[in-house]
Design goal:
Helix content: 40-55%
Oligomer: single chain
Low-confidence stretches: 108-114
Distance between the termini: 21 Å
Number of strands: 5
Number of helices: 5
Number of domains: 1
Shape: globular
Strand content: 15-25%
Largest sheet: 5 strands, mixed
């Protein structure tokens, strides 16, 4: 399986549960402030449903990356997202390839939005 396929499979699982993911982002932002969900593709594929334990504050998540370009890009994404309509997802594959993904949150009464790759 390619990295892109691994990412797409995980995203399709999350898309099927977009209402839960949207509510989780909103709860975590209110409780912890700006940050992101940190998820592994293999966990999602095995049925792991994201929870508050998967949320990391901006400071916590930036500590995980050594590459200055990645840190800078992620820091900017976290600072710029609109928490009432978006969330940031960090998706890590089995080989540690990492994607920063903007998630358009589902609003009650509206059609679910697609997860957008950053």
């Amino acid at each position: 399986m390619t990295l892109d396929e691994e990412r797409e499979i995980a995203l399709s699982h999350l898309q099927m549960d977009i209402t839960h993911v949207s509510n989780l982002f909103k709860k975590c932002y209110i409780k912890n402030g700006r940050g992101s969900l940190l998820l592994y593709t293999h966990s999602i594929e095995k049925g792991h449903r994201p929870s508050q334990a998967d949320y990391r504050t901006k400071h916590e998540v930036l500590e995980l990356f050594d590459d200055s370009n990645s840190k800078s890009r992620l820091s900017e994404l976290i600072e710029r997202y609109k928490p009432n309509v978006e969330g940031i997802l960090i998706l890590i594959t089995n080989t540690n390839a990492t994607w920063f993904i903007t998630v358009n949150l589902k609003n009650h009464g509206k059609k679910a939005h697609r997860l957008n790759h950053a």
